[in-house]
Design a protein that fits this description.
Number of domains of chain B: 1
Number of strands of chain A: 12
Distance between the termini of chain B: 23 Å
Shape of chain B: elongated
Oligomer: heterodimer
Largest sheet of chain A: 6 strands, antiparallel, barrel
Structural class of chain B: mainly alpha
Helix content of chain A: 25-40%
Distance between the termini of chain A: 56 Å
Shape of chain A: globular
Amino acid sequence: MKPLNLIALLLFLAGAVWALTRSDRAVRNIQAVYYRAVSPFLKAGSGIETKARSFVKEIRHSKDLEAELEVTREQLGRLRLIESRFRSLEEENVQLRNALKFKQSTRFDVVAARVVRRNPTTWWQTVEIDVGADRQVGSDLSVLCNEGLVGRIDRIGKDRSSVLLLTDEKCQVAARIEGSPEVGIVSSRRGIADGKPMLRIRFLSANSAVRPGQRVFTTGHGGVFQPDILVGTIDSVDKGALASEALIRPAVDFADLGAVFVVLTEES
Amino acid sequence: MIAALLVQQFMPTFTGIYSSRILLLHLVFLCAAVTVGQPTMLLLAFIGGILWDAQCALGPDVGDPEVYVEQVESLRFGFSVLMFGALGFLMQGIQPLYRRGKWQFSVLLSGIAIFFYLAGEYLVINFLRGDFMLTRATFMQMVYTSVLTMLVSPLILWLLALIAKRYGHSLFSERKQKRHPAWS
């Protein structure tokens, strides 16, 4: 091997080791610099994608009606979410007041966002939305839509964020099954699905009385997702000797995500 | 490669064909790797790998580890640097053929290299997370991504030849130049 080639190879390996040993924080900083640099192109690229999607929709609907409907849907979804949350808060409030242990109310607010880019990476199930740090969106916040849980915020930029979808194996959710004491961890299967994506809930007890059709909600444990958000419906149950698993049909149609809502917390 | 990365932002995923895509950044690197020397190839591999990982790397697992007992690993930042380097060496193996004007082999190998790249990534993901799983859709995603990317490679090779010509540099051997002056 020529000396120059050898030096180049050693430098390359040193560079690779440097990259592989970066901490998560350092990687996030590198990503922030990268996304700041390519931001204008990302906006233009996602603009084209959004326009293409709108064009397809316009074949069926007039543009004005479509825009009006979109805004109305966003507002309706936002109000529904807030209303359902306030109802549960009201119940919680009554319970806590009855127990005389009520300390403080929980703030629950959402920011409406539009999906501007789908699957920007090969293996991870993510989408990009058009809100970021400038709208108080922080990392790891829950993302919902009218139908239920969508995922959580992964990376935040100034005016864009990346959402890790529930259909990605890395997005785990502590969940409970309606009408049963069973709790477990919901996650997706690896790779892209043949047909509609399914989720699975693991760590159910071996003799669990779970049956198809039961709804699955978040427990609120684990510090990521708020409680009582619909995840999906049990499709089938696979009983094991030590633990059972169940397949869940997601409540959300991930192929048709348009408007979503980021749940803001006290910290954000 | 920077230009390829920027153009990549405008290229959508083909959701109708197993969410496949054209990996333009990878393709430009592979086509460049067959035309340049080893030190330059390694420099391009480092730049390409860093840029791609900056775009794709996921954040760490979140949540209470007592609730989420199983951590789900993803590819580490910097992994693509090694993959780009390995594929660069693969492409350099057929550099003599390319220099003799047989660019068709480069086109074919770029498709194969993309498939190896995707398969390698997927195998590492499976190794990190355990339980090997490969759905038909995932396999088809790899195949279609490789084929779609390969179909664009003649254009990239032609553009590289054009750039080389513009700056008075030849990518081909003397013999080839005499036979096909248009390529020089």
